[in-house]
Design the sequence.
């Protein structure tokens, strides 16, 4: 048995007290009850898909990818049409989900370990390349209330000292510091994923591990964090499924990569397997299911139309993602919500669902989505924010952004110019309104600056080694080739 550290002991004491305040029994109890009405505490299953674009499932508009299980989930759930990842790349979004904090506050602002642009105009700040152990993760916050937690799939929040088992998870399967698998087929060469069978497919294997965890913990409340590696590069899929899509895809279709389509279908299979397991065990009625992507779809793998651009971009294609939440007995079937929400919101939402009180000294940037899940149409919040002081081949130069209701302002740090769009009328961000609405643009820019100060956002600085010719000479063709072979930053 792993020895509990002093830091973990202090967390247990703090959150044990919070659990007692909420009426929850000490962690480890297999009969933990919700604070209200004596009902069993809900289980949580969180599907986090890697690089899945906003329209990469049928219920969000795809006419190519076949996702009957995700569609069935959506028919039982609330579908959020203005849902956002906290960053245009993966690691910061994952940190925001697990802590409820903006990446800017955590200083985890790029994929770990990020891109190197030594001759770019701006020098990136000295950011944090791991999720600090001092942060209280969802797994740690839920544990005093009797929950057991598993992380099955991609971690990418630091090297071994920062792995899931150091962050409150009782089980870590396949989680390392790497952003993509060496292979989607066995042998995977992932040190935290033992065994396997010839021709076994990684998405299927993670689903199998998830089913085992659910089976073993069916009689106690659990939090299953299932962050799939798919549909991230390298693009590798079951040949028979890819062949079927090759025959299906027609000339002129924006989503036209058969291998990627087959990877999407395997993710859908995973959703179906987990839902079936919950049904078979008779616990679906007390299991909350979340489905979301960590950032926008990668251009070259998929198309995010009608959104502009994709992963690694300041525009909607980089951060708007599919999101579905099923809260049995609460959410109405086949409901849709267009209120802007962001990945930081999951933390307070899950704790409220579980009846777990937060330490009042703990900072959480997200807000609970419970009012929306119960049928409301608006949160007590007007803005959500982004901060990306980095460069990315997907198009991003260092930027910040704020969405206030229908308006979105982007501030580009290299030359300090701003762009502003009305997303209700212009989802593709074609008409820049900043020049025509200077007072509103100035107001949003001020709000963005105030927010950056409030969270202690790290800013890029002028680069003393800036050399335009050397920076332009970066091997663009080589970078494009890496997109399909598997480079997290691409």
Sequence:
């Amino acid at each position: 048995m792993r020895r509990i550290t002093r830091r973990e002991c202090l967390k247990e004491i703090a959150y044990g007290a919070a659990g007692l305040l909420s009426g929850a029994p000490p962690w480890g109890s297999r009969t933990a009850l919700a604070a209200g009405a004596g009902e069993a505490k809900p289980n949580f299953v969180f599907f986090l898909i890697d690089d899945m674009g906003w329209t990469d499932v049928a219920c969000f508009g795809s006419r190519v990818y076949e996702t009957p299980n995700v569609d069935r989930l959506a028919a039982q759930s609330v579908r959020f049409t203005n849902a956002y990842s906290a960053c245009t790349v993966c690691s910061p979004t994952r940190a925001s989900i697990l802590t409820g904090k903006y990446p800017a506050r955590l200083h985890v602002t790029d994929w770990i370990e990020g891109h190197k642009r030594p001759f770019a105009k701006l020098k990136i700040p000295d950011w944090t390349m791991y999720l600090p152990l001092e942060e209280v993760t969802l797994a740690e916050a839920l544990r005093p209330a009797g929950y057991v937690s598993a992380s099955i799939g991609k971690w990418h929040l630091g090297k071994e000292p920062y792995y899931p088992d150091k962050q409150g998870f009782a089980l870590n399967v396949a989680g390392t510091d790497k952003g993509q698998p060496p292979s989607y087929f066995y042998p995977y060469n992932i040190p935290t994923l033992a065994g396997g069978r010839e021709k076994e497919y990684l998405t299927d294997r993670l689903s199998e591990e998830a089913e085992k965890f659910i089976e073993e913990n069916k009689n106690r409340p659990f939090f299953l964090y299932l962050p799939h590696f798919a549909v991230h590069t390298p693009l590798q899929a079951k040949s028979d499924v890819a062949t079927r899509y090759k025959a299906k895809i027609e000339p002129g279709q924006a989503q036209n990569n058969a291998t990627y389509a087959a990877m999407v279908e395997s993710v859908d299979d995973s959703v179906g397997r987990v839902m079936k397991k919950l049904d078979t065990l008779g616990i679906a009625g007390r299991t909350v299911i979340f489905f979301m992507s960590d950032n926008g779809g990668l251009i070259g793998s998929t198309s995010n139309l009608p959104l502009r651009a994709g992963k690694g971009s300041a525009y909607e294609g980089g951060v708007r993602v599919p999101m579905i939440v099923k809260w049995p007995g609460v959410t109405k079937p086949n409901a849709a919500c267009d209120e802007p929400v962001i990945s930081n919101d999951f933390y307070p939402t899950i704790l409220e669902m579980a009846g777990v009180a937060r330490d009042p000294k703990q900072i959480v940037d997200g807000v609970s989505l419970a009012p929306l899940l119960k049928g409301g149409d608006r949160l007590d919040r007007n803005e959500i924010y982004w901060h990306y002081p980095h460069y990315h081949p997907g198009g991003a130069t260092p930027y910040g952004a704020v969405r206030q209701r229908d308006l979105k302002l982007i501030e580009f740090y290299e030359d300090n110019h701003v762009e502003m769009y009305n997303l209700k009328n212009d989802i593709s961000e074609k008409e820049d309104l900043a020049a025509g609405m200077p007072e509103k643009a100035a107001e949003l820019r001020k709000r963005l600056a105030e927010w950056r100060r409030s969270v202690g956002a790290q800013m890029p600085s002028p680069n003393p080694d800036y050399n335009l010719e050397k920076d332009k000479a970066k091997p663009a063709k080589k970078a494009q080739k890496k997109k399909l072979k598997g480079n997290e930053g691409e």
